[in-house]
Specification:
The complex is a heterodimer of chains A (161) and B (865).
Chain A (H helix, E strand, L loop, with lengths): L32 E3 L4 E6 L10 E6 L2 E6 L4 H9 L3 E4 L4 E7 L1 H5 L11 E5 L2 E8 L2 E7 L3 H16 L1
Antiparallel strand pairs in A: 1-6, 2-4, 2-5, 3-4, 6-9, 7-8, 8-9
Chain B lengths: L11 E10 L2 E7 L3 H7 L6 E2 L6 E2 L12 E4 L2 E5 L10 E3 L14 H4 L21 H11 L16 E12 L3 H12 L4 E4 L10 E4 L3 E2 L7 E5 L3 E12 L3 E3 L12 E2 L1 H9 L8 E6 L2 H12 L3 E7 L8 E6 L2 E7 L2 E4 L2 E5 L2 E3 L2 H6 L2 E5 L4 E5 L5 E3 L27 E3 L4 E2 H9 L5 H8 L12 H12 L3 H4 L13 H5 L12 H6 L3 E5 L2 E6 L3 H10 L2 E4 L4 E6 L3 H8 L11 E8 L5 E11 L2 E6 L4 H15 L4 E4 L4 E7 L3 H6 L16 E6 L2 E6 L8 E7 L3 H12 L5 E2 L2 H10 L34 H10 L3 E8 L10 E4 L3 E12 L4 E9 L8 E6 L2 E8 L9 H4 L1
Parallel strand pairs in B: 1-7, 8-9, 8-13, 9-10, 13-25, 15-21, 16-17, 16-21, 30-40
Antiparallel strand pairs in B: 1-2, 3-4, 5-6, 5-7, 11-12, 12-13, 14-22, 18-19, 19-20, 23-24, 26-27, 28-29, 30-36, 31-34, 31-35, 32-33, 33-34, 36-39, 37-38, 38-39, 41-44, 41-46, 42-43, 42-45, 43-44, 45-46
Helix pairs in contact in B: 5-6, 8-10, 14-19
The chains are: A alpha+beta (161), B alpha+beta (865).
Bound molecules: FE2/S2 (inorganic) cluster (FES).
Chain lengths: 161, 865
């Protein structure tokens, strides 16, 4: 069966130059905004486990989850998870944007920031939002990277006006 | 004139602020509003009325009426009585021809009466018909309030902030503050919103000035806080919006100098202004008496106080000069004055509750409308719920005296008692109809000051009670809001490919396709197309929709979805597929590569990706098949390397066998390209030998750069969407949505080989069978123009005698063929090789010849080479 290797950036050789979808968009960005895109991301479907060893499981629906892991360990973890679940490498599909500050987040999403992680609209696009104290991570379709970075940086500037 | 500083005033007299009004500097104190500062400087006329251009002055000083609307820093319709002063603000009057003091359009007041009765727009200026464009031009130039600069840019920044509140209290009066404090003491997170100025409250977050615009489902309350729109989601909403002072209806009730009691009180207490020299008070409640006391204390002479609860007054007439109050006649007794305080009682400000679903009932005892049946999660407290409302004389608030001047029921829309009586006479006897016909309550105050007076007038004139007349529907927004605030920030959720920035560096002209930004070309569309034929080109096709369809039932799933056959496909082979709707119409197209027995890789059009994904998921849910569908559109970048030298370029990037035996036309292969895991599809939309490479998007720039480097010796050029359109047209490949519409089917789109009608069943099969049964009517064909002129897309196909019989869907000049070519829908009888038809070009007709086979490489030898 095809291992769908062409979906996995982790299978690229060292000569291949990774370019984050947010690299250009975040040039000169304020320190409250950062790039998390080079994080391993695996979507798993089925009866979700309570946790995933070597990764952080975020439940999107009762039988759909997103596992975040170290980029270098993605392929290994994917192979392991594929034994029990329908698992797909979505590392390249999702960009990751870190945002610091609750008020900044309130300017871009109406998700309940006290009930994260949750998936929902962030400035009109779908994202999974996770939280660690005052730091938030947005995981969303990489093709919206320039757009969402522009929105977040603009909102950050708005708070400083 | 300013009064000496007094405790509780809003001013910081140590800090001066200067702004300009109509070009002249106005000095104010911090804490002033633009309106209070102008009033203190002696300004009395603040606006001209909507229809009659009558002078209007401060009336409520609370942002509830239309009387003080001006243009501030380019923003029209700002209520200056509630707009805090700011340094260097530029304030201008609006809705005048001339100045506020001398407005040429006041002629509509003097002469306009007979020409502008209620509903005049339905019956005057209709004849002569030829003159309508002139009327229209004139009416448009004088109608409306304020002017927007057509070429203006965003004057202000507006943001949206999403907030949550355990308890949201709307209204910062006594009841609102008490409610806020009670909830805060109980340990709840409380936010209090008020339109005006509110002192801090312990344990409560105060948002002021902030206007709640409405109450929506789920406890959503948008609050206009000036430059930020707070979208509150509240678990509990406490409405403490209080009451609104009502005017009295009598001749001259709109003169400059006629004010409501709270407006007078604010001038004195908040901004330390002596409002007038001599005042008369006419009141139906205590508010008028309290205003009289404040005025006296401020040194204003009181010429008379008429408390209509105690004395019977038959007629009140206010008289003025130049629209400014000079005297009041009470039952014929003339009192000169420069201020008339009128108090028509208070009406609960129930609109937000009503929007949220509360019922509103008339209480004849108190003469007010009271909200009842308050929905769950919402509480009404204080006077909005009717608390403490007593003692007014409702009947007295409507006191029209005919023939002694205009009695305004609605100052926003200049609707008089006569207008409403005329509407009743014409049969508009319900208040909802009257609202639509006369526009009463439809102006900037949204009924705050005219709702109750119009209901009372209707009740009296129709000899019914107010409860029977009822109320009109309260709709959001409850308070006026700038469009800028509603619009928010100007960001467009565009999708960009992983190679987007490289395209820009290469000089691409970008264009929209759906929500994607794509290169139209790199400046030379025809040259780019030609280099694909001559050597090799590369195009970014990352926008294609891409899905993995995997599972034991995947082949059967696709068999049912598509009219094509997939069960017989060998692994690593590709097939072109056209997706049908259940009505048998073309929905989308793309390629389907079988990666193994249970796995297919499906591509869709760029703009159809979302709809196709939903379509797949929908049918998968309906059929309950053992199939998983994964959208990998954004995860994979895709480029197409095409042209006779494409293989040579590819050989420099991978070491797999690229010979025709190793990777034939319509073969797929997983391989490393420039060190990146990729799926290679040997397909060709542009008619030359081609390789479509799909690989993880973070390597988009890397692979793109490597291809350009590898192709340099062959003269490789990137090409955009426009050259691609020329090339695909030469091959007569259709573009779904361009060459097809919502009625097109594969049989008539000249792709009968797609539909395997001998299959058990597939989505849309019944419809295709019906098409086959009735016979083909219109067909999609290629054509070439005899004289080389390129018709417009959408041009008509015409039979001799100029009857339209079809339309052009695509047309281009082909530099390779040196011909104008295209595709068109034509009747079946004409859809034969070599037949001809006429096409409209440049206002005339030109002849085109039907072609049924691709213009370029009709046998596909180049594709297979
Ligand atoms: S006087 Fe400003 S809104 Fe009424």
């Amino acid at each position: 069966m095809s291992g769908l290797a062409f979906l996995s950036p982790g299978r690229a050789s060292a000569e291949a130059v990774w370019c984050s979808p947010l690299a250009r968009a975040l040039e000169g960005a304020p320190p409250d905004v950062g790039d998390l895109s080079q994080t391993g991301k695996i979507e798993i479907r089925g009866d979700l486990p309570k946790s995933v060893k070597g990764g952080e499981l975020n439940r999107i629906t009762p039988n759909r989850g997103l596992v975040l892991c170290d980029f270098g360990k993605t392929v290994e973890l994917l192979e392991k998870l594929s034994q029990d679940y329908f698992a797909v490498d979505v590392t390249a599909t999702l960009a990751g944007l870190s945002v610091r500050g609750e008020q900044l987040m309130r300017r871009i999403t109406d998700l309940d920031l006290d009930a994260l992680p949750a998936a929902g609209a962030v400035s009109h696009i779908q994202a999974l939002v996770t939280r660690d104290g005052d730091s938030f991570a947005l995981w969303f379709g990489q093709e919206y990277s320039d757009y969402l970075a522009e929105v977040v940086i603009d909102a950050w500037e708005g708070l400083r006006e | 004139m300013r009064l000496p500083a007094r405790p509780g005033e809003r001013l910081n007299r140590d800090r001066e602020v200067t702004f300009t009004y109509d070009g002249n500097a106005v000095r104010a104190f911090e804490g002033d509003t633009i309106g209070s500062a102008l009033y203190a400087s002696g300004q009395r006329i603040f606006s001209r009325s909507f229809k009659y251009h009558r002078p209007r002055g401060l009336l409520c000083c609370s942002g509830s009426c239309p009387n003080c609307m001006m243009t501030v820093d380019g923003v029209p319709n700002v209520r200056v009585c509630a707009e805090p002063v700011r340094e260097n603000a530029v304030v201008r009057p609006q809705n005048v021809w001339g100045s506020l003091e001398r407005d040429a359009l006041v002629v509509t007041d003097k002469l306009g009466g007979p020409f502008t009765p209620v509903g005049f727009y339905y019956r005057t200026m209709i004849r002569p018909r030829w003159a309508w464009p002139l009327y229209e031009k004139f009416l448009r130039s004088v109608a409306g309030l304020g002017k927007l600069d057509k070429h203006g840019t965003r004057a202000n920044r507006y943001d949206v902030e999403h907030r949550r509140a355990r308890v949201l209290v709307i209204g910062g009066g006594r009841a609102g503050r008490e409610a806020a404090q009670q909830h805060a003491v109980a340990g709840m997170q409380v936010v209090l919103v008020d339109e005006g100025f509110v002192d801090p409250l312990e344990g409560v977050e105060v948002v002021a000035p902030g206007r709640a615009l409405g109450i929506w489902e789920g406890g959503l309350v948008p609050v206009d806080a000036g430059r930020v729109l707070y979208r509150f989601r509240a678990e509990k909403i406490v409405v403490a919006t209080g009451t609104i002072e009502q005017p009295l209806v009598f001749p001259g009730n709109d003169l400059v100098g006629v004010m409501l009691p709270d407006g007078v009180r604010r001038l004195i207490e908040d901004w330390g202004i002596k409002p007038a020299e001599k005042a008369v008070v006419v009141t139906v409640d205590e508010a008028g008496r309290e205003a009289a006391a404040s005025l006296r204390e401020a040194g204003v002479e009181i010429a008379g106080v008429y408390d209509l609860r105690r004395e019977r007054v038959r007629e009140i007439v206010a008289r003025g000069r130049g629209g400014v109050l000079r005297s009041v006649e009470v039952d014929g007794r003339k009192l000169s004055c420069d201020l008339l305080v009128m108090s028509g009682g208070r009406q609960p400000a129930y609109s937000l509750l009503s929007q949220a679903g509360a019922r509103v009932e008339y209480d004849p005892g108190r003469g007010v409308f009271i909200p009842t049946d308050i929905p769950e999660g919402i509480e009404a407290v204080g006077s909005v719920a009717g608390e403490g409302l007593a003692g007014a004389v409702p009947a007295a608030s409507y006191n029209g005296a005919s023939g002694k001047g205009k009695c305004f029921v609605c100052v926003c829309e200049d609707v008089t008692d006569k207008d409403l009586k005329r509407a009743i006479a014409e049969g508009f006897d319900s208040i909802e109809l009257a609202k639509r016909y006369t526009t009463v309550t439809m102006g900037p105050c949204q009924g705050r000051l005219c709702h109750v007076p119009s209901i009372r007038l209707y009740a009296r004139e129709n000899e019914k009670d107010e409860a029977t007349i009822g109320t009109t529907t309260a709709r959001p927004p409850w308070a006026p809001v700038t469009l800028g605030l509603l619009a928010g920030r100007p960001h467009e959720p565009a999708q960009r490919t992983a190679i987007h920035h490289r395209h820009k560096e290469l000089g691409a002209k970008m264009m929209w396709t759906g929500t994607w930004r794509r290169p139209h070309s790199y400046g030379d569309p025809e040259g780019e197309a030609q280099s694909v034929h001559a050597s090799v080109g590369v195009i970014d096709v990352s926008t294609l929709g891409k899905m993995i369809v995997r599972g034991p039932d995947s082949a059967q799933f696709l068999e049912r979805l598509y009219p094509n056959r997939f069960g017989d496909m060998k692994p690593m082979r590709i097939r072109y597929g056209v997706l049908n709707s259940d009505a048998g119409r073309i929905m989308d197209d793309g390629t389907i590569a079988r990666l193994d027995d249970e796995t297919f890789y499906v591509t869709t059009t760029s703009t159809g990706a979302g709809a196709v994904l939903e379509w797949f998921e929908w049918w998968n849910a309906v059929w309950g098949m053992d199939v998983e569908i994964v959208n990998v559109t954004g995860g994979l970048a895709a480029v197409n390397v095409a042209g006779p030298r494409a293989r040579e370029v590819m050989r420099k990037l991978t070491d797999i066998d690229l010979s025709n035996e190793g990777l034939a036309y319509l073969d797929a292969r997983e391989a490393q390209i420039a060190g990146v895991p990729s799926l290679i599809l040997r397909i060709g939309f542009v008619g030359e030998l081609g390789y479509e490479l799909h690989f993880p998007s973070p390597y988009g720039e890397h692979v793109w750069n490597e291809i350009l480097d590898a192709g340099e010796e062959f003269g490789i050029r990137p090409f955009g969407l426009e050259p691609q359109r020329i090339l695909r047209l030469e091959k007569m490949h259709i573009l779904v949505g361009q060459d097809t519409d919502s009625e097109s089917n594969v049989l008539e789109a000249n792709m009968p080989w797609i539909a395997k009608l001998d299959k058990d069943d597939f989505v849309g099969k019944w419809s295709l069978e019906q098409v086959q049964e009735r016979g083909l009517q219109d067909l999609l064909v290629g054509f070439e123009m005899e004289d080389g002129k390129v018709p417009l897309e959408g041009a008509q196909v015409v039979l001799e005698g100029t009857r339209p019989i079809g339309r052009i869907t695509s047309s281009r000049w082909s530099p390779e063929l040196r011909k104008a070519i295209g595709m068109a829908w034509v009747p079946a009888a004409i859809a034969e090789e070599g037949k001809s038809f006429l096409v409209t070009v440049d206002g005339g007709f030109e002849r085109a010849t039907v072609r049924l086979r691709p213009f370029f490489d009709p046998d596909g030898e180049k594709l297979r080479s």
